[in-house]
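Lecture 7, part 2: worked example. A protein chain together with calcium ion.
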Amino acid sequence: MRILLVEDDALLGDAVCEGLRQQSYVVDWVRDTGAALAALSTSSFSALVLDLGLPDGDGLGVLRWLRQNGRATPVVIVTARDRVSDRIGGLDAGADDYLIKPFDIDELGARLRAITRRAQGCAESVLTAGDVILDLRQRSVTYLGAPAPLTAREYAVVELLMRKSGCLVTRGEIEEELYGFDDHIASNAIEVHIHNLRRKLGAHFITNLKGRGYRVENVR
Ligand code: CA
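Predicted complex, written out as structure tokens:
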């Protein structure tokens, strides 16, 4: 899952990036509203973590821009403002959740999972495709009843393909989900992940339509 973090505090931003990456999120971090709008205009994110007090304006402006442009990307506001009126203002502007600083990074991770599940109309937290079972809450995969030793990026590929069950997912879409702006992507990176996943989860788990994309079928 790829997250956009909008936060001007260097220490907190570092901590959130590191904490979310440990929970297998891909995180892009920007520090003001201008950079946030630029990132949102060019990339797609599974969710936003949004600070309100930013050097060039109010984070609520980013949220309003999203909603005015018909973008339903889930948003968690994180801010030191703890007045009830601030909270109501944020939720009214279209935020999905709210955390008051300081907050626990594991709680932020859990809330991100909850709001992205809701956004994808998927209240279920377990998805099954044949012998492969994906637990969205634990962020784990079992194959033939045993835990599958997946890397964070392999897990992200499985989650993306299973959430989009039956749809063809292009290599570009997978790259966008797995890699942030600053990551170097080897030209065969996705093929390598797919190859390893077939080794770990069975040769037929992922269907490859030559040159067009990848698909996992029959997800329940
Ligand atoms: Ca701030």
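The chain is about 40% helix and 20% strand. The chain has a mean pLDDT of 91. Keep this in mind for problem set question 3.
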